[in-house]
Design brief:
The complex is a heterodimer of chains A (393) and B (289).
Chain A: H1 8-23, E1 34-40, H2 47-66, E2 75-81, H3 86-99, E3 104-107, H4 111-124, E4 128-130, H5 136-139, E5 148-150, H6 155-170, E6 176-180, H7 183-198, E7 205-209, H8 217-225, E8 231-234, H9 237-250, E9 256-258, H10 267-270, E10 279-282, H11 292-304, H12 317-337, H13 342-350, E11 354-356, E12 361-363, E13 380-385, E14 388-391
Parallel strand pairs in A: 1-2, 1-3, 3-4, 4-5, 6-7, 6-8, 8-9, 9-10
Antiparallel strand pairs in A: 10-13, 11-12, 13-14
Helix pairs in contact in A: 2-12, 3-4, 6-7, 12-13
Chain B: H1 2-30, H2 37-54, H3 59-86, H4 93-112, E1 128-130, E2 133-135, H5 137-159, H6 161-171, H7 173-178, H8 183-205, H9 217-230, H10 235-255, H11 261-275
Antiparallel strand pairs in B: 1-2
Classes of the chains: A alpha/beta (393), B mainly alpha (289).
């Protein structure tokens, strides 16, 4: 048996070669993927929304990669579950940016989670794309430079639309508010008060609901006794369902005009018989949508995710559509930047001229003063009917 | 408004009371409590849903099977999370049961699923009129069940051999063993009973709320506050404090607004503990020297 007995010279040469490898400048290989991060609720009451965002991003990435990727490199999605917890969201953001080196971070299904992440991404200069959370201060965060962009609803615009609908359709003169007790509820409280003020209207009261409230009758009774003739509801699936069950128990037949929170889960199952009466704002639906692009993307989704059989299985469609368009716009921004450097990608968003998306054709969607790609003309009111979210007049 | 608010308060309060009874029953025999009571409540609801809805069993059978499952869970909690520490005279069962609750919640999250589900019940669909206020029949049944269980427990503790064995186990475990009482079995039985109470609470609240892995967390916390408020040594104290706590919550929300609910209700707990350290109905331990 022979034992290799290396000479001192060959040992030295080997050590130098190893050092050389260790300290050689790292050039991304042409096929190294560009990483895109996603932080969203992948468990809990809003899990369906997180799933919808994932599907939208994955559909867009599959199309982009099939067309040759971005800067000649494929895109890769890395997901983390924030469990609707701002602390966990921020921890996941640090991990995805520092350890994984994502080029753009998507996420924040809930406004509180987004608001926790926003100061961090502005500090480390990594673009953050919001495909869902609608809190006004997410994009209007006061930072300069601002790295936060959004393809989704914006509370202050949604609130104007909610007030317009309550007045125009339900002839409301004294609406009441049922708001979730968190920063999202606060954002809408400001928006609704401003929208009512602009119309010279008063309100019957502002009531808060907690995430785990079982019975909301005391809050609703206060609004009823104050003479509320319509309710604005801003809450996610769980508390929204409890509001509708409580209305059923009270036998109070009052119109409910809602932000889009109930769309994110099994609201029609959890909310009892009154759930289908809620009028929710959305930015997109597959049902009742006659655009060829919507039909084409629904077919592509069915092929990519065999569990999707019909439009009822792509609830909430807003999550898919917002994330799909946001991913394509992000790819354009990276392409415009010519690199994955954060400040360059941020400038790349401003350089997007036009893009034919699923929700609409975007013309100059982002400017230094406008980080929200969707505007007042991009909203539609809907209801749950037989498990599907259907547009209504 | 008052009738409607009281219905809300009594319904929720009975839930807190039932869970607090679970804290009482284990404390009464072993001076230990199961801090995963909220998770046990969730397990009751999840098993009820799985047997009754997913597997389509008749609901009475599903309820019995769910409660049996809860009893087994109680035995496991006592054997694995409490006894090893209590035998060494350590208080680490406290941390172990908290950790056990987190493990249970996460196991259910992966097995039952991430999304909350609705447990249908004919008792929670059509409201009935109670002095001009609407109420689901289930909301009226819950306080009755809570009070009936407290009455039965008190009767068992005071009038039966088993109750006396429970009392003997906590007062003088060694003497109780010499008298032929299987103290280990009494303690294990108490833990099984406590998780059954939690399971009943879970099955009762599920049609009014929803069924999900995280549903028991807030109930567990409030129930422990209730047990302390009423006096953990008193079965009646736990249930009455639960009803009181539920009513204070509902009345505060109705008359002061929801922003004040937690401030007022938890301030009440602190106030009572400052003035009555053993709770409203509890009694201090007499130590003979």
């Amino acid at each position: 048996m022979t034992i290799c007995n290396p000479s001192r010279r060959s040992l030295f040469a080997g050590a130098m070669a190893a050092l050389g490898l260790a300290f050689a400048p790292h050039h991304a290989a042409a096929e190294d993927p560009i990483k895109i991060g996603l932080i969203a609720s992948l468990s809990g009451p809003s899990a369906k929304s997180g799933e919808a965002i994932t599907r939208g991003i994955m559909l867009a990435i599959s199309e982009i990669n099939a067309a040759g990727g971005v800067l000649g490199r494929p895109l890769e999605l890395l997901r983390r579950d924030d469990e609707a917890n701002p602390g966990k969201g921020l921890t996941a953001a640090r991990e995805l940016i520092q350890r994984e080196g994502v080029t753009v971070l998507f996420g924040g299904l809930q406004t509180p989670v987004s608001l926790a992440i926003v100061p961090y991404v502005n500090q480390v200069q990594v673009p953050f794309m919001g495909p869902w959370a609608a809190g006004t201060p997410i994009t209007k965060n006061g930072a300069d430079p601002n790295y936060v962009f959004r393809v989704s609803a914006v509370d202050e615009i949604v609130d104007i639309a909610l007030v317009e609908r309550a007045v125009a359709v339900h002839s409301s003169k004294l609406p009441g508010m049922v708001l979730i007790n968190n920063p999202w509820g606060e954002s809408n409280e400001k928006g609704l008060l401003a929208a009512l003020d602009a119309k010279g209207m008063e309100h019957a009261g502002i009531e808060k609901v907690e995430k785990n409230d079982v019975d909301v009758v005391p809050q609703l009774t206060r609004l009823k006794e104050a003479g509320a003739d319509a309710l604005f509801m801003v809450a996610n699936v769980g508390p929204s369902a409890q509001v509708m069950k409580s209305l059923e128990r009270m036998g109070w037949d009052v119109p409910v005009v809602s932000h889009w929170g109930p769309a994110g889960g099994r609201f029609n199952e959890l909310g009892g018989p009154r759930a289908e009466t809620v009028e929710m704002i959305q930015t997109f639906t597959f049902s009742g949508n006659d655009s060829p692009k919507a039909a084409e993307k629904l077919a592509a989704l069915k092929e990519m995710f065999p569990e999707i059989q019909s439009a009822a299985d792509v609830t909430p469609a807003v999550g898919i559509a917002n994330a799909y368009d946001a991913m394509h716009l992000t790819a354009l921004a990276i392409e415009n930047a010519g690199s994955t450097d954060g400040p360059a990608v941020r400038e790349g968003f401003y350089a997007i001229e036009s893009h034919e998306g699923l929700i609409k054709t975007y013309e100059k969607p982002f400017t230094p003063d406008q980080h929200d790609a969707l505007g007042p003309d991009d909203y539609v009111f809907t209801r749950f009917i037989d498990g599907e979210i259907i547009p209504i007049q | 408004m008052i009738v409607s608010t009281l219905i809300t308060g009594l319904g929720l309060g009975a839930m807190y009371g039932l869970l607090a009874l679970g804290f009482h029953v284990t404390y009464a025999v072993s001076k230990t409590v199961n801090f995963s009571q909220g998770s046990s409540m969730m397990v009751g609801a999840v098993l009820g849903y799985t047997f009754g809805v997913t597997l389509g069993w008749p609901m009475p059978l599903a309820v019995i099977a769910a409660l049996l499952g809860c009893a087994v869970l109680g035995l496991v909690v006592e054997r694995c999370l409490v006894r090893p520490f209590a035998d060494r005279g350590s208080d680490l069962w406290l941390m172990a049961t908290v950790a056990g609750g987190i493990v249970i919640d996460n196991v259910v999250l992966f097995t039952f699923g991430k999304e909350p589900r609705s447990l249908p019940s004919t008792l929670a669909t059509e409201p009935v009129d109670v002095f001009g206020a609407g109420a689901f029949p289930l909301q009226l049944i819950i306080p009755v069940v809570g009070l009936a269980i407290a009455a039965a427990l008190t009767l068992v503790q005071r009038r039966t051999k088993m109750g006396k064995a429970m009392l003997a186990t906590v007062q003088r475990p060694d003497a109780a063993r010499l008298m032929g009482i299987n103290t280990r079995m009494v303690i294990a039985g108490a833990f099984a009973l406590s998780t059954v109470f939690a399971g009943i609470a879970g099955l009762l609240i599920a049609p009014l709320f929803n069924v999900s892995s995280g549903m028991g967390v807030i109930f567990g916390i409030k129930a422990f506050a209730t047990a302390i408020l009423g006096g953990i040594t008193s079965a009646w104290g736990c249930v009455i404090a639960g009803l009181l706590y539920g009513c204070v919550e509902a009345l505060t929300t109705a008359y002061l607004g929801s922003s004040y609910t937690q401030i007022v209700s938890f301030s009440l707990v602190i106030l009572v503990l400052v003035t009555l350290p053993n709770g409203l109905f509890g009694h201090g331990e007499i130590k003979k020297v």
